[in-house]
């Protein structure tokens, strides 16, 4: 199974490498203040992918922190004693 995993990783790496080699044409990004930035297309795509990854990770930080706090609270909460015979509701 490890060989299969490494084979898949190698194929993905080869595909990404070919993609990067074929997309080296310069592109121009124009900002609001008439500032123009030129860089190879693959670099621009990498920067946008990394920025999206960072924003996605930051969006999860609050949820993860809240879940960990709740888990900690539930672990420290004293357990309720178990009732041997739970009361039965009255018959009508």
Task: Provide the gyration radius in Å.
Answer: 27 Å
- The DSSP helix count reads 2
Largest beta-sheet details: 2 strands, antiparallel
Oligomeric state of the chains present here: single chain
User: Beta-sheet strand percentage?
Assistant: 5-15%
Query: Can you tell me the residue ranges where pLDDT is under 50 for at least 5 consecutive residues?
Result: none
Protein model, in words:
By secondary structure, this protein is mainly alpha-helical. The protein has a domain of 57 residues. Helix content is 62%, strand content 11%. The protein starts with a helix and ends in a 16-residue tail after the last helix. The mean pLDDT is 88.
Characteristic key phrases:
single chain, 92 residues, elongated, mainly alpha, two-stranded antiparallel sheet, 2 helices
In short:
By secondary structure, this protein is mainly alpha-helical. Helix content is 62%, strand content 11%.
Architecture blueprint of SSEs:
Blueprint: H1 2-22, E1 26-30, E2 36-40, H2 41-76
Antiparallel strand pairs: 1-2
């Amino acid at each position: 199974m490890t060989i299969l995993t490494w084979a898949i990783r190698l194929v993905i790496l080869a595909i990404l490498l070919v993609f990067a080699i074929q997309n080296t044409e310069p592109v121009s990004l124009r900002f609001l203040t008439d500032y123009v930035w030129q860089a190879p297309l693959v670099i621009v795509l990498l920067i946008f992918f990394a920025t999206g990854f960072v924003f996605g990770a930051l969006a999860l930080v609050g949820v993860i922190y809240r879940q960990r706090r709740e888990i900690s609270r539930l672990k420290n909460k004293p357990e309720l004693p178990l009732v041997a015979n739970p009361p039965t509701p009255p018959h009508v």
